Amino acid sequence: MKQIAQWLILLLLGVLVSPTIGNAGVGMLAPEITNQTWLNSERLHLADLKGKVVLVEFWTFGCHNCRNVEPYVKQWHLVYGDQGFVVIGVHSPEFSHERDVENVKRYINEHDIRFAVPIDNDFSTWNRYGNRYWPAMYVIDKRGVIRHIRVGEGGYQETERLIQLLLAEKG
Fold first, then answer.
1. Which residue segment(s) compose the domain that 119 sits in?
2. d(CA 87, CA 50)
3. Is residue 91 included in any domain, yes or no?
4. In a domain, 2, yes or no
5. pTM of the predicted protein model
6. What is the mean pLDDT of residues 69-75?
7. CA pair distance 12, 89, nearest whole angstrom
8. How high is the pLDDT of residue 3?
9. In this model, does residue 83 exceed pLDDT 90?
10. Domain for residue 10, yes or no?
């Protein structure tokens, strides 16, 4: 009986704690991005972006793989930005020097990154999405539903085709 009670307590604790850790998956509504500091943009709210296709990318400037993905994300922002496509590059630092907002500003200036960059030093957005990797891209449709998740490098043509398809969908 004591083991059952302990198990029930652990189960209840898991239910109570789980809302703080997200698990954004394909087919789910995308969690809000609640970071206070934004570069290249005023704070954006996903609810205000309904009717647009959104790419939420988790990255950090010191990550080699993130740097390899960067040209594709920048190109998509440039090519599709005037068609209703929005890129939000959530900067979640891996190392202490990546937490310094001035270092992030310098990097985005030197690399001509023009899309919105929320600073996620406390990993609040990272955790809301249940993210675990750099880079990771979440493609969100016009209704705010996650339609694709890409972790790591590659799959660029597939991701771009999906962006094109979602932009063509009726809002």
1. 22-168
2. 14
3. yes
4. no
5. 0.87
6. 98
7. 35
8. 53
9. yes
10. no
Q: Which own/partner pairs from 17-24 qualify as long-range (CB within 8 Å, at least 24 positions apart)?
A: 20/127, 21/127, 21/130, 22/127, 22/128, 22/129, 22/130, 23/130, 24/128, 24/129, 24/130, 24/131, 24/138, 24/146, 24/149
Whichever domain contains 136, its CATH number is: 3.40.30.10
Express each pLDDT in 48-69 by its tens digit.
Answer: 999 999 999 999 999 999 999 9
Q: What is the average pLDDT across 13-25?
A: 51
In a domain, 17, yes or no: no
User: Are the beta carbons of 141 and 147 closer than 8 angstroms?
Assistant: yes
Amino acid occupying residue 75: Q
Q: Is the pLDDT at 21 greater than 80, yes or no?
A: no
d(CA 40, CA 16): 36
Give yes or no for a cis peptide into 19 (omega within 30° of 0): no
Position 6 scores a pLDDT of 46
Domains in the chain: how many in total? 1
